Amino acid sequence: LGGNARLIIADNYFMKEIQYIGEHIWLGKLGNFFLILSFAAAFIALIGFYLSTKNKEYLKFARSAFYTHAFAVIGIIGTMFFMLVNHYYEYQYAWKHSNNEMPMRYILSCFWEGQEGSFLLWTFWNVILGIILQRSLKKNDWEAPVMAIFSLAQVFLASMILGLYVGAYKIGSSPFLLLRELPEYASMPFIQMPNYLAKLNGSGLNPLLMNYWMTIHPPTLFLGFASTLPPFAFAIAGLWRRKHDEWQQIALPWTYFGILILGVGILMGGAWAYEALSFGGFWAWDPVENSSLVPWLVLVGAGHVMIVNKNKGGSLFTTHLLAIGSFMLVLYSTFLTRSGILGNASVHAFTDEGMQGQLVLYVLTFLLLCVALLIENSLLRMSYIVGSLLLTFFSILYGGKTIVLCSWIFISSALTVYCYNKYFPKEKDEEELYSREFWMFLGALTLLLSALVLTYFTSIPVLNKMFGSKKAPMDKADFTMWMVPFTLLLMILIAAAQFLKYKKSNAKEFYKKLGLSFIISVLFGSVCVVPLYFMKDFSGATGLHQWNLISYALLFIFGTFAVLANSDYWLRILKGKISKAGASVAHIGFALILIGALVSTSKSVTLSKNTSSKKTEVFGEGFSGQENIYLQQGDTLPMGPYLVTYTGKEIHGIDFFFKVNYFTKDAKGKPEFAFQLQPKIQDNPRMGRAADPDTKHFLNRDIYTHVTIANMNPNMDTINKDAYITPKNYIGHVGDTIFAENAIIIIDSLKSNLTQAEYEKNDSLLEVTVVLKAYDVQGKIFWAHPKYIIKKNIVIPETDKIEELGLKFSFWKINPDEGSVEITMAEKVNNTKDFIVMKAVMFPYINVLWIGSITMAIGTLIAIIERMRKIKIHNSNHGG
Q1: Rounded to the nearest 10 degrees, what angle do helices 115-136 and 143-159 cross at?
Q2: Do residues 791 and 765 lie in contact, with contact meaning Cβ atoms separated by under 8 Å?
Q3: How far apart are CA 839 and CA 636, in angstroms?
Q4: How confident is the model at residue 10, as a pLDDT?
Q5: Quick one: DSSP state of residue 108?
Q6: How, if at all, do strands 15-20 and 694-697 pair?
Q7: I need a surface site. Which of 596, 765, 774, 803 has the fewest CB within 10 A?
Q8: Residue-wise DSSP of 751-774
Q9: What does the pLDDT read at residue 524?
């Protein structure tokens, strides 16, 4: 506790004791105490709330345990922040995610960048929601079963950061693990130095995460994940108590809260990807993006079916299925993103840290619980539970995990169908075709099916691992194609459903109310889509591309229909009452998101077609001149509707800002300054270079730019232009590439005047020549032939120059064991102007998407407030 620790290193010859200087061992002990207390208190709360379902005398005990768990979670968070703020690099979490140079505003980002921190963030939000929920249910019979489910979820989350070993099996990963306790670092020489902390610096944040979005997006998204737990807990409690209807009234505001927060979190991620991450758009159908979208789609379906139940009754199994499904899909997405299984399929996924089995157990336990509670026959339920445990034990002992898992899923599915048919209450009457509940149910079903399709294609890496297949992951175009039919149907449903009455509506009156909106949508949409998709593009398109253009046109027309129909319903039917218009406003927002995404992506234009005489292709296959422009400092080139000039760079620490001026032409055709963009590249010494785009926002479009290649040398205007800069050493094999500022050099071949045997026999002069083939930015070829000469065992390197490129090479070493050579290359200061290769894209009408995002969030918030108001009135009228 005094700040020193000892490590004993033993081998066959001696035993050495190291007394470390400056370690804060007390902090780790305190943190681990809170970790164990958090897990133990959550487990005790689970037992307490379970016993409270039979005897309410245990409630006080259970509440105390849950509050103790909450205290422990706050303790873990406080300890971790203390560790990060003070840069205690003896702890692996602080060393991996922070460093001395990082501004304090990114400490929050450090906290949840890693697996342990993000699990803790999720745990924290569950604690907050659990306390609010527990207090709201204090005089309610639902408290015990609902909080028992909450506590079970907390037991699993707390286990994810325990870092304890049971035999050879590790439970979770502790954020308070010492750096020298990691197997990959324990034998490193610097760890064996008593004062290794004296000059130790952390690795720091990934450059892409040093952004304000990293501070606000993860907390919002994880609050969204946490908000799927209350509806799930209520649905499970409904199965537990055999009260399939009562819980829905209480759970409805929580469901819409989850829809709001998780939806906002997803949209924040899209905005971050668009603004800061150089993905070239706000949505890429990345597996991790999909794994957050899928639970939201199912939760939206659950909310709508709960409204049907509230107004008409029925749809009991569907509400259970969707409320349970949204949380289960959050668990499944957690498995996808944190098990390492998406490591090669997603840029967002965590690497495998040995928690794959634990995550699978987390998912399967809740699946087991759902099916077991659906079974009313006690003997059948016990047989199912025991059989499941035996199958698990069998797979652990004898293998065959894939076969066992598939068998268990089949048995569980069959039992679910059997119990639904035998035990679950059914509706006596079928819904009328022209009834609001039928169309809302159809909308929920559409959302569920779209979620299942996304889940299947996102799970291809999982299926490949389970069945040994090699199916390629879906690309962006494939996902878009599959989702078009679902989106079209959703647009029709959200446009029309509100004009229907519950139970039964007059078909003629229904179509009459919708007619005006539909006619205006078709007329306005046709006027828009003909020039957008058919006047230039359609005739020269192939069959598949023609179908894409038709689908874009239909999406635009029916998206417009959804906006106009909901606006009409709000103004004409609801008389403009904002308190009643939550659904209409949210639907308008959702349709605007679709229209904005559709137009901005389908009609995006790459402006940066190369108009320079320099070829961008020489930098590699990914630098096509159709998408990248080569700009030398001071030159002005046409780029789309603009003239652009690269004026130079500014360097702030490790951040390089490249200033690009945009000009338009005035009435006389003279250039007129329009605006300046400063895309950035961060040159992180530990994690490499990361581009950060810059965007000019207009009302009707965005000009989005990022630098793909740049001269990262500091400004050297004051240096002799004919001088050579300090040579750099390159180790390579024949065929390897060396990059200069103005050329690409390939190690073409090696030539020798003697064989090794002839040299050893005659002791003659050995002369080895490396043939270097250089391409300049115009694709012109130059050659250099530096030599490696050995005369009487003395090495005499002979340099060679390419004067046209200002390059000088020296061949000074051969590594025969590795088959490599070492070459130094020096470049003249004036061998090229400062330059960048830049990509610029115009996204038209993308503001429609952002307006839609805000509108949908406002509409959902209005709906939540109205639901809570109605519950308050209902409770006051019924005395509770």
Answers
A1: 170
A2: yes
A3: 16
A4: 45
A5: H
A6: unpaired
A7: 803
A8: EESS-HHHHHHH---EEEEEEEEE
A9: 94
* The pLDDT value given to residue 68: 97
Residue the block writes with tokens 């002791």:
763
Listed as ranges, residues in the chain with pLDDT below 70 are 1-17, 168, 277-281, 340, 342-355, 428-430, 537-544, 685-687, 713-722, 755-764, 777, 829-832, 874-880
* CA 37 – CA 26 distance, rounded (Å): 16
Burial class (CB in 10 A: 0-12, 13-18, 19+), 713: middle
Whether 812 and 798 have beta carbons less than 8 Å apart is answered as no
Cα–Cα distance, 707 to 659 (Å, whole number): 11
Contacts of 163 (CB under 8 A, 6+ apart): 32, 35, 170, 171, 172, 173, 174, 176, 177
pLDDT of res. 369: 93
Contacts of 135 (CB under 8 A, 6+ apart): none
The residue ranges of DSSP E strands in 151-267, in sequence order, are: 164-166, 169-171
Handedness of CA 420, 421, 424, 429 (dihedral sign): positive
Q: Which two tokens stand for residue 878?
A: 């019924």
pLDDT at site 590:
95
- Please, which residues have CB within 8 angstroms of residue 802's CB and are 6 or more apart in sequence? 743, 774, 782, 783, 784
Determine the pLDDT at residue 716: 47
DSSP 339: S
Assign 3-state DSSP to the chain and report helix, strand, coil percentages, each to 5: 55, 20, 30
Residue in the block written with tokens 């998407």 = 849
Cα–Cα distance between 174 and 185 in angstroms, integer? 16
Q: Say if residues 231 and 327 touch (Cβ distance below 8 Å).
A: yes
Q: What are the structure tokens assigned to 711, written together?
A: 């001269």
Q: Where are the beta strands (DSSP E) in 720-878?
A: 728-732, 737-739, 743-752, 766-776, 781-784, 787-791, 794-798, 800-802, 807-815, 820-827, 835-844
Say if residues 258 and 133 touch (Cβ distance below 8 Å).
no
Amino acid at 79: T
Q: Which H or E element spans position 663?
A: strand 655-665
Among residues 502, 512, 508, the alpha carbon closest in space to that of 432 is found at: 502
Query: Using CA atoms, how far apart are residues 280 and 576, in angstroms rounded to an integer?
Result: 39
Name the CA dihedral angle for 217, 220, 222, 227, rounded to a multiple of 10 degrees: -160
Q: Please report where in the chains the tokens 């049971």 appear, as a residue.
A: 166
What pLDDT sits at residue 556?
94
1 token code pair: 């506790």
**In angstroms, how far is CA 715 from the centroid of its own chain?**
37
Q: Which pLDDT score, from 0 to 100, does residue 669 have?
A: 77
Q: Which of 561, 577, 593 is nearest to 491 (CA)?
A: 561
CA separation for the pair 293, 288 (Å, rounded):
9
The first and second tokens of residue 207, run together, are 């450059």
Q: How crowded is the C-beta side of 238, counted as CA atoms within 13 Å?
A: 25
pLDDT number for residue 687 = 64
